[in-house]
């Protein structure tokens, strides 16, 4: 057992690839569409790699005969919200892929990010925060796989032979679970408290005063596992938290096909774009 | 020919496709475009969707499967879902409702 401490985790964080600053800038400054247009275009024009990603993704979203040539036209054609969404997603995926963990990790993060974003649209939550919370909900697991791959494999081996809660097995092997580790990382990156709560609570969202964002990430992860996004033999749904459903005022007896269809289509489209 | 519903990104939509479900586009909670199920997509209609920053639509596509093949697909989807839910509490009403919602979509 590693018996990790918060201090040991903090000391390890400089070993991670640099966290994309534009994510925290978008979350902190760029909430207001009108005030943020020029600020976002300025950011993009200073970063040719991200600007190229935005244009590539924007062009792939258009009909075949139209090609967008610059960041400003991309913003006006596909909309400010969509550009912010592309910047957040591609920045976070680049970060995850720089960790060189198996593809499943970042595909799962992408799926949960998109699904949390769709839930935010459906239930009126902040969309940027929802996307980032979903993309980062398993950042503690990525940390485990990047810095302690043998112990991470041990967790997988235990779970494949006996049905036990993931976090319980992680605490046995690491001394902490990926939710607690993720919270330390997110706090170090100065992410909003609402996102930190979502990272901490997504496996055990049973507090009666549960925040809506934490509830959305929990439900999104269950949806993605239930839809096999991405496909993996050991996808599981063990519980769906009643306080989470209550926090979102969500009723599964209503027709959810439209929500599920949007999540499915967006994931398949985004995965094809980033591969 | 039978049809089935598919959710496709805007870039995969073509003139002549029919909406399988109503399409409602909102901006900050306000409805900016609403099209009914069955609406036939045209080139100007697709441009209109683009102008409203639509991203996806549910359309009808041809379903070449026989009745037997369709039934076999549905059984396969249900078996996979039971595998995913194998450790969930089958007596929980929330789990049952969630299972049924996922199954309804996977059978589309």
From TrEMBL, chain A:
Chain ranges of the HDOD domain: 16-205
Pfam families: HDOD
PROSITE patterns assigned to the protein according to its UniProt record, in alphabetical order: HD, HDOD
Residues annotated as domain HD: 105-226
CDD domains: HDc
InterPro entries to which the protein is assigned, alphabetical: HD/PDEase_dom (IPR003607), HD_domain (IPR006674), HDIG_dom (IPR006675), HDOD (IPR013976), RNase_Y/CdgJ (IPR052340)
NCBIfam families associated with the record: HDIG (TIGR00277)
Protein name stated in the entry: HDIG domain-containing protein
From TrEMBL, chain B:
Source taxon at top rank: Bacteria
Designated name of the protein: Uncharacterized protein
